Amino acid sequence: MREWVMIDLRRLLESRLSTAFAVLDPDADPVLRPSDRADFQANGALALAKRLGRNPREVAEEIRSHLDLDGVCSLVEVSGPGFINLSLDPSFLAAELAAAATDGLAVPAEGPPLRVVVDYSHPNVAKEMHVGHLRTTIIGDALCRILAYCGHEVIRENHIGDWGTPFGMLIEHLLDIGESEAAQELSVGDLTSFYRQARASFDADEDFKERSRRRVVLLQSGDEETLRLWRILVAESVGYFNEVYRKLGVTLSDDDIVGESFYNADLPALVEELRQKGLLVESDGALCVFPPGFVTREETPLPLIVQKSDGGFGYAATDLAAIRDRVGRLKADLIWYVVGAPQEQHLAMCFAVAKMAGWLGDGVIADHVAFGSVLGADHKMLKTRAGESIKLVSLLDEAVARAREALDERSSELGDEEQAAVARAVGIGAVKYADLSTERTRDYVFDWDRMLAFEGNTGPYLQYAHARICSIFRRSASARPAARPPRLDAPQERDLAVALLGLPEAVRTTVRDRAPNRLCTYLYELAAVFTTFYEQCPVLRAESAELREDRLLLCSLTAAVLATGLGLLGIEAPERM
RNA sequence: GCCCCCGUAGCUCAGUGGAUAGAGCGGCUGCCUUCUAAGCAGAUGGUCGCAGGUUCGAGUCCUGCCGGGGGCGCCA
User: Fold this and answer.
1) Which part of chain A has CATH 3.30.1360.70?
2) Nearest nt to A472, CA vs C1'?
3) CA-to-C1' span, A457 to B44 (A)
4) CA–C1' distance A571–B76 (Å)?
5) Which tens digits make up the pLDDT trace of A437-473?
6) Is the ipTM, as predicted for this complex, more than 0.90?
7) Fold type of domain A9-88
8) CA triplet A359, A364, A366: central angle to 5 degrees?
9) pLDDT-based confidence at A383, cuts 50/70/90?
10) pLDDT tens-digit profile of A420-431?
11) Would you say A286 and A308 are in contact if contact means Cβ atoms under 8 Å apart?
């Protein structure tokens, strides 16, 4: 484990409070919350008083008398009907800041380090990545970075759609237009027209349809020539995905690709295992498992179809094989599926069947990290099929173009190359933050101006705060932060200190709720508190050398927390903008 | 028909059962000879979809409605 980690203010106070509450009731919850009257408030005395049949203020007072917060809080008082208000001691805050400044921003892990498999992004071969892929890719990537930061071992899995019946038609289309032409089309990312043309031929041409069906059979039977053509489709598409990932600044690489086809060889054995465990039921010619609690429209049991009546395997089979593989081979403790909310029932069924088969359980947990849909102006889901989807790359390119425009307006002294790099950081940062900062499970209506806003609660606002701090240090070569605990006399300094020490809690709750928007909110509030400080507390022109050094320490830490936090979200923190 | 998610300011959204529900955007008032105005300060803006219930206390938990989205056997 790490030698030194930042203090988690919330957990420290909670543990001290629990000790004091325990004198009256060992199981009492202090109900610690942030407060606008103090730094924190404990509300637990009210519920406890009710349970004990006593006066709440009296109970609160009694708890207060048992509280040991020497050196942590400078003021603890009972207020209102029985709230316990806690104000942190400035010298305690200062000491923790100084420690963070010398020892770094490592955060304490909650519980033992785990091996976590994160399944995200999963685009489909020969299909365009559209704005709908943004959510899984960005949220999944941020969660991976955050988990790793907390000391967990992260295994990224990009479960790409590289198998199934559509490949018959895609391969036939590839043959029709010629291999080199197809490779060209796919590599430049013109996947939409490729897929649509294949689809159009399939729908319009009986002969093509028949060839496609035969091609699927050849593919599944392992025909070498067919596999070779299939590999062209996969390789060109993956090359294109990597291009998008590079633009997006996502940590996925070829090593993380574990497509559906990866499990092909496992599927017969998987079916056999289910059969031996007595879970398999034949229904209308298909091999199914009926997990309890799932019903159809007609209230009849709903099957998870493992093997179709034609002998083929569907996605349920590969999803089950993936669970089995992740637990068996990868030894995962935890599996996160960053998958859209509409697939909730399907995943719940897979998890249920995996539990029935004994693949899940024994401390292995699979969780659906669901996210809401991206909707069009008509409030319906944006879908590739409907032809109204927006290409992910178009969004990214537009974002960078708008950021470049904004930068050019500011007559910056940056060279062309750095200007372009900053434009990328700002544009992509805006898009990522716009997505990450909305509550995960909520649907949102796609809006260019919202995704590409650079003002207010946006990625660029956070980057701007960071860049302003860098500018202070750039301006003065002699700018040295204090090596000692800073005085925190001004309220803006004190507010900033409390905000800076909120990082561990922000990271912890982000992981607990698998909610990057919590980290976004924290960073936005930190940046806002900093900006107030920046407006009202001169740094380089502070009245004394000591004050200047103290404020430089606050600046330096703020820049570090912002850069770290943005990094955890997968957003760059340029030094100028 | 059944199940899941969502409903908070004009718009987009935060809000772990606690005190007076918060931001941003748009609109209104101010602020760049002073460390980056992608900023700051201020004012305005709310029957938290509706109705019951649980609770000392409900935007938050429960039930029922209304509205929106999604899912419900061989597509992924």
Assistant:
1) 9-88
2) B35
3) 21
4) 30
5) 999 998 888 888 999 999 999 999 999 999 999 999 9
6) yes
7) Gyrase A; domain 2 (3.30.1360)
8) 85
9) low
10) 999 999 999 999
11) yes
